[in-house]
Amino acid sequence: MAETPAPPVRTLSLKSRVALAVGAVLLLGGVVVLAVALAYGRQAAREAYDRLLVGAASDIAASMSVRDGAVVVDMPVSAFQMLALAPEDRIRYRVIGPDGATLTGSDAAPLPPEREGVGPVFYDGDLGAEPGRYVAVTRRFAERGFSGPVRVLLGQTTRARAALARDIAQGALAVLAAAGVVIGLFAWLATRSALRPLQRLGGALAERDPTDLTPLALPMPSEIAPMLGALNGFMGRLDRQLAASRNLIGDAAHQLRTPVAAIRAQAQLAQDECDPEARARILGRIHERSVGLSRLLDRMLDRALIIHRTDTAPRAALDLRDVALEVFEEVDAAAIAPGARVRLDLPPGPLVVRGDALSLTEAGKNLLANALAHGRAPIRLGVAREGGRARLFVRDAGPGPSEAVLSGLGARFTSGAPGGSGLGLAIAREVAESHGGALLLGRSGDGFEAALALPRAGAA
């Protein structure tokens, strides 16, 4: 019974994520703007009402005069008219003579902090049970009957200041709220428009036949194009794996049926044969066909493994000389061609490529086995540098196949010699192409050469 696929894990939609992100930005921005608006409102209110205070205090100082050696303060109406612009605030004033005595006003008005310089001095202090803002203005007299500084202290509660600061902040907050609504609306519309390519991609996938693994060709924004490329790459790898599985099944059904049927027929003959010598000959043929079938199975499984590793095995930097040594050590030349010897030809310096060592070794083993089975001694296995490429080659002294046969070598089940499976060169070709290279077959000097031409690591 097939397992029911687990439902996809659902999270917040992209629209919700964008909405939350925009809302968070607007909220944070609102808090910052509100704090800035409050600070600006307080500063603006303070400067506006400080001007009123210093204007009123200056009018009081200007109204003072000296009569009979004493300072007379004639409180001007204009000073109170200025302060009347804040009708809810209370005021307190105090005029202090050169000796520090209060000439008029309330003794409860606090003194300003001592500092040097000229001009009005602003400071904070209590005005009864409420906080207040004070200004101190100094007028200096230098007359015959009176000389010295006279200070005017004028204070006012801060109700009007706070109300003005709130009005400024509320106005800024109202503008921010309206702007936030407009920005949120445009962000929502922009998000819907930006997500339409994803909806098109999902629709294209949903409408596809389950067996259709061809690449999707859809116009996509630059941000989504990498995802489409990765999806096409995944489908390409899956298509190659499925094709390899189909080929393996088809090849097995096509290539194994005849030898298996022949072995069965020979076994039936051996079972019915009474002559010991004839039975021995039949058993010999059964053994030969079994060995051939075993080699064919090995080649088919090797090819399936190589195709699988094409998309799964990581590529690493490796010295092609090590691959040649591995091939030289693993191939039993005496078992394939009794009396044959293989000469190893390696350069003194490393020849680095990026690839899968196992796949390259299998390809090299197939090239060497072909040369031993179908070539002519002497046989050379070596590595060479050729421009920006590295070559793993096997060279023998034979003439090689004809031009007509040579043009078809490298395809599955196309052999250049009787008894060959045609899979060895196919494996080598697929390994070379999966590494960005090629399988080169041709005459070289007085012999025939098969080589894997691969791009060198770091070569231009």
TrEMBL record:
Domain (HAMP): residue spans on this chain = 192-243
Molecular functions per Gene Ontology: phosphorelay sensor kinase activity
Gene Ontology cellular component?
plasma membrane
Where in this chain does the record put each Histidine kinase domain?
251-458
- Coarsely, its chief localization is membrane
Q: Which reaction does it catalyse?
A: ATP + protein L-histidine = ADP + protein N-phospho-L-histidine
Query: Which EC numbers characterise this protein's activity in its record?
Result: 2.7.13.3
The residues that cross the membrane are: 20-41, 168-190
Q: What class of enzyme is it?
A: transferase
Show the Pfam families listed in the entry. 2CSK_N, HATPase_c, HisKA
In terms of superkingdom, the source organism counts as Bacteria
Q: Which InterPro entries match?
A: 2CSK_N (IPR013727), HAMP_dom (IPR003660), HATPase_C_sf (IPR036890), HATPase_dom (IPR003594), His_kinase_dom (IPR005467), HisK_dim/P_dom (IPR003661), HisK_dim/P_sf (IPR036097), Sig_transdc_His_kin-like_C (IPR004358)
Q: Which SMART domains match?
A: HATPase_c (SM00387), HisKA (SM00388)
Q: Which UniProt keywords apply?
A: Kinase, Membrane, Phosphoprotein, Transferase, Transmembrane, Transmembrane helix, Two-component regulatory system
The cellular location(s) given in this protein's UniProt record come to: Membrane
This chain's protein is named: histidine kinase
Q: What organism is recorded for this protein?
A: Limimaricola pyoseonensis
